[in-house]
Inverse folding.
C-alpha cells in the first residue's frame, strides 16, 4: 500500500469501532447466533429500521464478522461470535464501552496532551472510579468490559504462575472478580478476597457464585488508598497503569503495610518498551498508554520504572513472566523491615 493510502486507512479506521459497537448495542451478533436471519427479522428483534440494519450488516461483512447468503439472509462468522454477549471469550462489553465512554475520551486527546490532564479529572472533577458508584448502568458495562479483557490473562496467570506457597490472595482493584475466580478454580488450596469499590461488588459476587467459590472467597469494598485486607499475596492487574507515579506508589505502600512477612505482590501489566517499534504489541501498548492519558491520568511503564516503584514501596522485583495478550506478571517479594 502506498504511503497516502496507508495513512488514509489509519485515519478512516475509526468507523470499524463504531460499526461493531452499534451492532453489539443492537445485539445483532446475539440474534445471528441463533441461526441465519433475514433483515426484516433482525430489524424487528433489534427494534431498528430495516434499511439501516441492512446497511450496517453489509458493512460488517467487509470485516468478516458476518456473511450474506445467496437468499439475502445473514449468518454469523467465527470472528463475529466473539461479539456475542455470552461468548466464552466475549469482547461484547469492551466493544460497547469503546464505542461510547472511551470514544468520548479520545475525542479530547489534543486537550489532554495540552494540559497533561485526563477527561475524568477536567470534566468530572474525579480522581478515581468512584463516580461509577452512582451509575449502575455505566458500572455494569465497565466491569463486564474489564472481565472481557481479563479472561485470557487470568487463565495464563492461573497456569503459569506459582501459587503453591500462598494461602490467601487479595485481588486489589479486582473489579468483577474474573481474575481471582479463575485462579481459585485452578488452585483448590487457595482462598481469597476481591477488593474494590462498591460499584463492582454485584458482578464479583455473581462470578463467585457461578464458580461455586463463595466458601473460599469473599468480596470486600473499600479504597486501596486507605487500606487493603491482610494477605500473603496481592494481585494487581491493570491497576497501576491507571495512576501517575505518586498515586501508584501510594497503592503499593498500602499493600506493603498489610502484606504478611515473606509475602509477594503480583503486578499484571503491559510492559512498555524502552523504544517503540511498529510491531503490533508496541502499537497495543502505545494505544493503552494514550488511553490512560485521556481517561485516567495514568500511563504504561517500562520494567525499570515498575522496578523503581516497587523498591520505593518496600518490595524487590524477583522475576517477570510473560502471560497472554501482551501482559506480563512481575512478581515482587516484601522487603524485610
Amino acid at each position: 500500500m502506498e504511503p497516502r493510502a496507508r495513512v488514509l486507512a489509519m485515519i478512516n479506521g475509526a468507523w470499524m469501532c463504531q460499526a461493531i459497537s452499534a451492532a453489539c448495542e443492537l445485539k445483532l451478533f446475539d440474534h445471528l447466533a441463533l441461526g441465519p436471519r433475514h433483515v426484516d427479522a433482525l430489524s424487528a428483534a433489534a427494534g431498528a429500521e430495516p434499511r439501516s440494519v441492512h446497511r450496517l450488516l453489509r458493512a460488517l461483512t467487509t470485516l468478516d464478522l458476518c456473511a450474506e447468503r445467496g437468499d439475502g439472509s445473514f449468518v454469523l462468522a467465527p470472528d463475529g461470535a466473539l461479539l456475542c454477549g455470552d461468548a466464552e471469550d466475549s469482547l461484547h462489553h469492551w466493544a460497547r464501552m469503546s464505542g461510547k465512554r472511551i470514544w468520548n475520551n479520545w475525542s479530547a486527546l489534543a486537550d489532554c496532551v495540552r494540559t497533561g490532564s485526563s477527561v475524568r479529572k477536567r470534566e468530572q472533577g474525579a480522581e478515581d472510579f468512584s463516580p461509577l458508584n452512582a451509575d449502575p448502568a455505566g458500572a455494569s458495562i465497565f466491569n463486564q468490559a474489564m472481565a472481557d479483557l481479563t479472561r485470557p490473562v487470568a487463565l495464563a496467570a492461573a497456569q503459569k504462575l506459582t501459587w503453591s506457597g500462598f494461602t490467601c490472595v487479595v485481588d486489589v482493584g479486582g473489579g468483577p472478580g474474573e481474575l481471582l475466580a479463575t485462579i481459585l478454580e485452578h488452585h483448590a488450596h487457595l482462598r481469597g478476597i476481591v477488593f474494590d469499590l462498591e460499584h463492582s461488588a454485584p458482578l464479583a459476587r455473581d462470578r463467585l457464585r457461578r464458580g461455586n467459590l463463595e466458601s473460599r472467597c469473599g468480596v470486600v469494598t473499600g479504597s486501596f488508598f486507605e487500606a487493603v485486607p491482610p494477605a500473603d499475596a496481592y494481585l494487581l492487574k491493570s491497576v497501576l497503569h491507571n495512576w501517575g507515579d505518586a498515586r501508584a506508589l501510594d497503592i503499593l505502600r498500602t499493600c506493603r503495610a498489610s502484606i504478611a512477612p515473606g509475602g509477594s505482590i503480583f503486578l499484571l501489566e503491559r510492559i512498555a518498551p524502552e523504544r517503540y517499534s511498529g510491531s503490533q504489541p508496541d502499537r497495543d501498548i502505545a494505544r493503552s498508554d494514550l488511553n490512560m492519558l485521556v481517561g485516567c491520568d495514568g500511563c504504561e511503564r517500562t520494567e525499570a520504572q515498575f522496578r523503581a516503584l516497587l523498591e520505593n514501596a518496600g518490595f524487590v522485583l524477583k522475576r517477570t513472566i510473560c502471560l497472554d495478550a501482551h501482559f506480563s506478571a512481575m512478581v515482587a517479594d516484601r522487603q524485610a523491615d
In short: The two ends are 59 Å apart (CA to CA). The mean pLDDT is 95. The chain has two domains: 3-81, 92-334.
